[in-house]
Amino acid sequence: GRKNTKPIERQAPSSPFSAPACGGASHTWTPDRRMAMASAARLLARAASEALGLPSAAARWTTTRTALTTHHPLGSSSLGLLLAREARLAQATTTAAAAAFSSSSGSSYPPHITLDMPSLSPTMSQGNISEWKKKEGDQVAAGDVLCEVETDKATIEWESVEEGYLARILLQDGAKEVPVGTVVAVLCEEAEDVGKFESYAPPEVGSAASQEAEVPSSSAEAPAATDDAPAMSLSLPPHTVLGMPSLSPTMTQGSLSSWTKKEGDAIDAGEILAEVETDKATIEWEAVDGGFLAKILVAEGTSDIEIGKPVAIVCEEEEDLKAFKDVTAEMLEGSGAPNTAAAAATPSPPPTMPAPEEKKAAPAAASFAPATKVGGRVPASPLARSIASETGVDLSLVVGTGPGGRVIAADVREYAESAPALQQQQHSAAAPGVRMGDEYDYVSDVYEDVEVSQMRGVIAQRLLESKQTIPHYYLTIDCEVGDLMRLRSSVNASVEESPAGKAGKVSLNDFIVKASALACKDVPECNAEWRDDAIRLHKNVHVGVAMDLGSLGHSQGGLVVPVVRNVQLKGVSAISKAVKDYASRARPAGGVDGKMRLAPEEMAGGTFTISNLGMMGVKQFAAIVNPPQSCILAVGAVRSEVKKDEEGGYRDAKVMSVTLSCDHRVVDGAVGSKWLQRFKELVENPLQMLI
Questions:
Q1: Is 235 or 51 the better-scoring residue by pLDDT?
Q2: Which has the closest alpha carbon to 607: 510, 526, 492?
Q3: 495 within 8 A of 505, measured Cβ to Cβ
Q4: Are 267 and 292 in contact (CB under 8 A)?
Q5: CA dist., res. 272 & res. 286, Å (int)
Q6: Among residues 227, 304, 441, 668, which one is catalytic?
Q7: CA angle, 530 then 535 then 536, to 5°
Q8: Marked catalytic residue, from 72, 427, 472, 664
Q9: What's the pLDDT tens digit per position in 38-67?
Q10: Does residue 112 have an active-site annotation?
Q11: What pTM does this model have?
């Protein structure tokens, strides 16, 4: 028996290796119990093979799952450690089993079983093979750790549910994005059969059972004939393919701003590989392992790179660098990609040059046909560009008569001479009888197309999704904030005399954040989110504070919403300190436009959002709900209004308008109104916030 008999607890139903009993209790499986169950399984398999007329070797490996699942009184859930590897294996018919493993199938390989990439978490659809703990030829017992698999949640040990000998490893250490169910290894029954699987290649999807394995004699042709075989992993030195990382919770694609390492450079864990522009900010991408940067597959400046797409290769040894010199992304992605890339790279045919007689017959009309751009730039000679700049001619409106449709100097001069007359002719024809203006009516439209940044694209996508999927409605209320402003002045005056000095001052917005959190505690329906089959009421209030990047020094602007957590437990000074820290780190890091020091997790997990445009003089506005939240508060500027006092006279009142945008699926109108009333009570009686 095995020496290590320490019980192993299995309590996570989501794991394919867990085995909850019918009543829901967990089982404690020891290695001895595993071996006993395996022996019982074989005895039952032999009996089944005799009844079905199957060879005993095949039955021992294939019929066990079906037979035990069908006849065991506790069913497959109590035998998960032996019968798992997905429910589909438990449902396999004995006919399919016989076809797959019997000698009548035409396969000359000894009895064996293929090991598929398991589903090790409820949301796992693919995984990475971090490290094999067994090597080819090693004996494997039920419960042994085969390898470590990196899932979408964590790195998990993959335990064997079978016993035998590891005959073939098809995907080596470092294999990335392996879909669940993909064959990654082969297990055989006898040690002397290991060498017979040297040329084994996984079957193609949809092939007949008789075609699942190639005859060993044709081993030289097997790898070439199998399109799905992981040739790159087997033919190159040990390496890791680096995919575009997900650096924020909402990131689906990113842009490679710059590589900080070049090909051939040594890499240590923790060093910066590149700067990646996400939907939130420009973030430094740190290496998690050491090695050498063997190949850069995606050049810096490339935009809209999907998460997981290969961007670089790291090898283990410096002498292996030359082996990756000619490797391309298309080779890693599979066949067909090179042709696609070649087709995309093939330039479009040059625009057809107008016939000379056509140009003579209608020179003005030809001159006003738009030019064809190549790569976003109109092909033109340097002299033509110089003349166009001096005369104010838009080259995109000029037809080129040079080679390949290139705009030459004569084309620009002809356009400049005929443009005013033609524009006047076209304007008169379009609107007869209309009095013409001065010469400025004929100036060409001038505009600039600004490339959409990663952040702007995601902002557009999320806001469009919000307006299309969330039934918004809006509630506005006026609050008198005179007492609140006097309290703020008093607090700041006392802070100036403290060691914190001006750094400890609080703003009106800090009080608004606090009042919003307290109102959410009293009206929890506004601190909630819609989840299709349930409404989640959050017990803690995490307030997102919208910040405009343009106001913080970024040229292209944008919006970030860092989250102040557990606001209901914080004082106003603590809230002020957190918001100031976020604003400081949202400014350009190191003076680099678009780069911030805010971490993605600091901009996730909010339950309520505040957008304040009061400092810009906006009186009142309606904000868009930030999914999956249900409410967002839009805060306007403080203004002076004349109101009657209790004595019949008049007084100067400081008034602030706020608008609550609500998701009607979660927050009814009466509930939203109740929240606003509580918020108004707090800001008009600010001492309640300090109790």
A1: 235
A2: 526
A3: yes
A4: yes
A5: 4
A6: 668
A7: 95
A8: 664
A9: 445 555 555 554 544 444 433 344 434 433
A10: no
A11: 0.46
